[in-house]
Amino acid sequence: QVQLQESGGGMAQAGTTLKLSCAASGVSFRQYAAAWFRQRPGKEREFVAASSGAGFLTEYAASVRDRFTIFKDNAKMTLHLSLNMLKPEDTAVYYCAADPSYGKSAEAYHYWGQGTQVAVSS
Question: Which of 11, 55, 61, 122 to pair with 81, CA 20 to 30 A apart?
Fold first, then answer.
């Protein structure tokens, strides 16, 4: 069993940067693909970014491409997300997820963290 714990959420001004982390435990993290999802107020959970097990493959949603950066640190068993050039629309609860198989849909992931709140003001 794998456990995931997000941290780093909070308040931020538009145009600034916020960094999130997700600590994994219980398994060899390199064996799992990992991803970030978010849920904006009143909306369904949506894909943000994903990384393959070794970290060589990364992918982003169009809404965050060129602004956010995902990094999978297998040595420290931690998944990172740098949220650059923040916009008010980025306000959401951010979740990290992991699964033996790579994917971009929430249904593809079996292990989830509890989420961390990000609030962007303008």
Answer: 122
Element (DSSP H or E) covering residue 58: strand 58-60
The amino acid present at 71, given as its one-letter code, is F
Q: Above 90 in pLDDT, residue 1? A: no
Measuring CA to CA, which residue among 119, 67, 73, 63 is closest to residue 93?
Answer: 119
For the stretch 71-101, pLDDT in tens is: 999 999 999 999 999 999 999 999 999 999 9
| Angstrom distances, CA of residue 116 to CA of 17, 37, 47, 52 | 16, 11, 15, 22
Six token digits for residue 39 = 């849920």
Position of tokens 């940067």? 17
Alpha helices of the chain — where are they, by DSSP H?
A: none
- Classify residue 38 as exposed, middle or buried by CB count within 10 Å of its CB (0-12, 13-18, 19+): buried
Q: Could you tell me the two tokens for 76?
A: 């420290």
